[in-house]
Amino acid sequence: MTTDTPHTLVHLADSGLAVTAIDDVRGFEVVDVNGDEVGTVDDLVIDPEEKKVRFLQVGSGGFLGLGERKQLIPVDAISRIDDAKVHIAQERGHVAGAPTYDPDLVPAREYYEELYGYYGYAPFWASGYVYPPYPFHL
């Protein structure tokens, strides 16, 4: 693995950048490998230097936004997108146990590295990393 520091990642909503309508999965339901609901894509976390989506920010639980838990899921976990649903290659329980996303936490290499490791993917700054063909529409 390379020791290069990854680019600073930002939320699409805060970046001033835009994605094409076909690439924008905000508001889509996220379902696990078994078809069980995980949550809804609230935002996309992007690398503004490379203009690539790195994570989906998924909100789950709560009522009317209160008590909702936010999780980041690497785009590498997406198996396909169809009918306003993002399908991931993980189980809902696995997503629930992921390192907690804290919007007040300064984006740090260690957090992203832990998150990628938890999901079983190499981080985007690793030597030989190949960006998945997002957005996987069928």
TrEMBL record:
One Pfam assignment: PRC
Coiled-coil ranges per UniProt: none
GO cellular component: plasma membrane light-harvesting complex
The PRC-barrel domain, residue ranges: 22-83
GO biological process: photosynthesis, light reaction
InterPro entries given in the database record: Bac_photo_RC_H_C (IPR014747), PRC-brl_dom (IPR027275), PRC_barrel-like_sf (IPR011033)
UniProt-recorded name of the protein: PRC-barrel domain-containing protein
Classification lineage: Bacteria, Bacillati, Actinomycetota, Actinomycetes, Jiangellales
